[in-house]
User: What shape does this take?
Amino acid sequence: MKYLFGLVSLLFPLAIFLGVHYWFWTNLVVDTALPSPWDSVVTAFIITCALSIPITFIVQFSMPRERIKLIAWWGYSWMGMLTMFIVFFFLVEMVQFGYTQFFNPTIEELISFNRSLIGGVVMLTVLLLLIGLYEAKKDTPIKNVRIPIDNLPSAFNGFRIVQLTDIHVGPTVGSSFIKELVKKTNAMEPDLIAITGDLVDGRVHNLGPIVSELKNLRAKYGVYFVTGNHEYYSGVQEWVAFLPSLGIRVLSNERDTLECKGAFLDIAGIHDPTGRQMGQGFKPDLEAALEGWTPSRPLILLAHQPRPFAKAAKYGISLQLSGHTHGGQFFPFNLAVKAVEPYVKGLYREGKSVLYVSTGNAYWGPPFRVGVPRELTCIELVASS
Assistant: This one.
């Protein structure tokens, strides 16, 4: 039974994957009656693109980054374009149905209509791809956010936290991006730097030299890190052991207390929920992270996914910093994210507790952003009036 379940869990997504590409092929080649040799050229292109996605996932964790960059760019770009095509071609099917029902066209008229309609969809998707590539690779915009905190001691009024999150160092995010991110972060002269997960997509032996650029981060009270779900796909034990060598404090369901002029501010961090599958050592434990905390003191919670906020707010934490959602990253994927995530981007409040969800510094997978810009967030804590 276990092997049958494993086989079904493998074949089912494979069938969907192949079915989507077949549907895409019929729209692009069959419905347009594409003449020879273009029908063969487009068919070969679609097959190559389809293969690029599984190849990208296979080589990403088994080969050096420099050798797979082009493959990853191709595979991930096609993944994003395919997502757009799925939505657009659903609309195409509806328009085609309406056209045939109301206008009763001849075969020649239908083919001409399909060529115009599908050609327009392809051009629109390519345009969105180019826009998305530009948005993903231009300078990361700095976003300043002032958050009122109850019981904030005057010594910490104006305390600045720069949040780094969802950097996804990997095949398409490399050292030049990290160097620029470090430079911009240090220029803001933060009091504290919080890295809220999904730092890497790959193993330490491949990405360690790139991530080592983070040793140049500077903050008065240091650099803190909590795991994201992608760390668990990338050898989490290795990364948790490696990051302290860069001067980064890993919060493993733990809490630290910061002191300034006799006043105190607590910072806590929990593991990502993905860690549950790895056993007790990486299971998120909010109670352990808050153990010994005096609720009269303000506390900042670092949690990669925003979902724990509902529970954290019941404990009266002052602020939770999260990422994970990328704000949806690109249309139409952002619509799906809004449908399944209670907190997508920006500020949320539950009682006296506040949540801030960053859209992320970079991206995952498809190397583009459409309608959801990246951000480098500077959080300024101010006393509530």
